[in-house]
Amino acid sequence: MSTLVDLGYENVGDGFHHPVKKPAEGELTEAQQTDNKVVRGIHGVCERANSLLKTTFKALRRVSLDPSRITKIAAAALVLLQLE
C-alpha cells in the first residue's frame, strides 16, 4: 500500500508517494501536475482532520503509544467528533 507523504520524505524508498518537484530546467508534465494536485488535496484533508483531533482531544497531542493502539484511539475520537 502506498503512503502519501510530503517532500520531506523524498528518496526514502518504495511505498511512499510524494509530490514531484519541478526540474531545474523545464516544467512538470501534465500528468505530474495532476498527480501533485491529487496529493495536495488529500494531504490538506488529512492535515485538517489531524488538527481537529489534536485541538478537540488534548490527550492526542503527545502520544507515545504503539501506532496500532493510537490508530484505534484516533478512530474512536474521530467518531466522537463527528457525532458532536
From TrEMBL:
Q: Does the keyword DNA-binding apply?
A: no
Names of the cofactor(s) = a divalent metal cation
User: Could you tell me the superkingdom of the organism this chain comes from?
Assistant: Bacteria
GO-annotated molecular function: metal ion binding
Tell me the leader sequence span.
none
Does this entry carry the keyword Oxidoreductase? no
Organism of origin: Streptomyces caelestis
- Where is the region Disordered? 14-33
The organism that produces this protein has a lineage beginning with: Bacteria, Bacillati, Actinomycetota, Actinomycetes, Kitasatosporales
Q: What is this protein called?
A: DDE Tnp4 domain-containing protein
